[in-house]
Amino acid sequence: MSTGFELPHPPVLSRAAALRDEPLRTDTARQLAGWSSARIVVVDDKGRTPVSWDSAPEAVFREGDAAAWDAAAGSGVTLRTRPSAGDAPPEGAVLLGEAEGVAYWAVRGRPDLVAGDDPAEWADLRAVGAELDALGAGLLTTAVASLSWHDNARFCARDGSPTHTHNGGWVRRCEANGHEEYPRTDPAVICLVHDGADRVLLARQPVWPPGRFSVLAGFVEAGESLEACVAREIAEEVGVVVTDIGYLGSQAWPFPRSLMVGFQAVADPAQPLVPADGEIEDAVWVTREELREGLSRGDWAGSPDVGDRRVVLLPGRVSIARSMLEAWAARD
Description:
alpha+beta; Nucleoside Triphosphate Pyrophosphohydrolase; 6-stranded mixed beta sheet; hydrolase; NADH pyrophosphatase activity; NUDIX_hydrolase_dom; NUDIX_hydrolase_CS; magnesium
């Protein structure tokens, strides 16, 4: 049988519907002309923005209520944007792109109680990214990533002088010498390792809730290819040698600035598993049936013990890991 598989649909945070071409960012006249009809995505310093649920239990807005978030999955979420104010975009605003003739910008902000904002209805990308439509998911992902970069790039890395925004918020230029800084992205690989038949390799970090497992991942080092990183990270984290490394897909993961590049690889389950001390608490080979059972329990839900059977708890649908696991589990 073939050892390969594909993702049947794009990972949720790779979806986008806004035009974000470079010329939009340098066309100041167009930005000013469209400002009066622009919509603003407001994101607070914790990465939250106001949203509207189509149908969700009241408990969904209680911080840390994972079961309520899972119960609301599939109900649909709408990104709530604000109208623009003033004559021009404020300092630090980021042009996210245009859709159907409307320009979308991102700014830092907080709930406006005078305008009727309910702080309890602000949610972050991890919680709502999988429920937003393509436009909303793309806008919020870009807003979180770009605003986080602005927060950490206020001074020039070369001469230490203050920097200011240009090009619709996609460039920061320093006062002293005009050095330019651009948003940074850190590539990381994430790999589903399987045996070419009916088992997949999962692992867990020590800080995760009991029973939570996922696929393996790690950051790409300087001077390293993506494929070499896959082989190195898996060997370092669980002591396994892999072959047949193949690309699956990618998605932004702006926590704070990663790009998750998904791969699959094949390994022999007879190899001993050696979890990296302090980094990997446990690693296990799981059958396709066990994985399907874990997936059927939904996002952030379930119990690690059901009688004498092992039930793995799996990452939520906002992550590319979930997309990879679902695709592999769906194979015959």
